[in-house]
Model the fold of this input.
Amino acid sequence: MTMPIIVIVLFIAFVIGIRLASSSFSPSAPAISHLSCSTTPASTTGLAHLSITADGSSRTIPQGIGYVKPWSTNQGTEGTYSGAIVTGGTCVYPLTTQAPTGIIHILGKANAHMTLAAFFAIWHEPLTKDRAAAWQGAVTIFVNGKKTEAKPSSILLTNHTTVAISVGTPVTTPKPFTFPS
Done:
C-alpha cells in the first residue's frame, strides 16, 4: 500500500517541478501591485512619459526600472538619449525604463493595474502627497498637461500618457513632450 503512495507523491513532485521549470514567471521576484515579473516579457505596446521637477530643477528618471538585475544592455538611442539601453534582466515587469529619459515602456496589454502608483512601487520609491522618490515637498501631479487631484493609484499609464510631477516650490508647469516615432 505504501509503494503506490510513494509513486504518486514522486509523480506529483515531478509534474510540479516541470511546471516551475517551464513557468515564465520568476519565483525570485514577487508580483508588485498585481503586476508579475516575467522571464519572457511581452513586447512594448505603448509608451508613457514621466518627468519630475523638484524645487524648480529637472530630475532624472533612472534607466532599468522594472528590470530585475543583472541587466543586459545594448548601445542605442531613445529620443535624444544615446548610450547604454537596458534590454533585459532576470525578469521584467510590464512597466519599464530602458534609458534615463523618463519614457516608460508598457509591455503587453494595458490593464487597470498599470498605474503611476504601480510604477513607483516597481521602482521601489514612495509617491505621497509630500514626497516623490527621493524628493520631498508638496507634490503636484499633471496628467497630459492638466493638474489633477487624482490618486496615483487611479492614474493609468497608457500609450502617450504624459505625467509631470512637481515637488516643492515653485510648482513647475510641465513642458510638452514629443514621443519618439
Remarks:
- Residues 2-22 form the longest helix (21 residues).
- The chain has a mean pLDDT of 87.
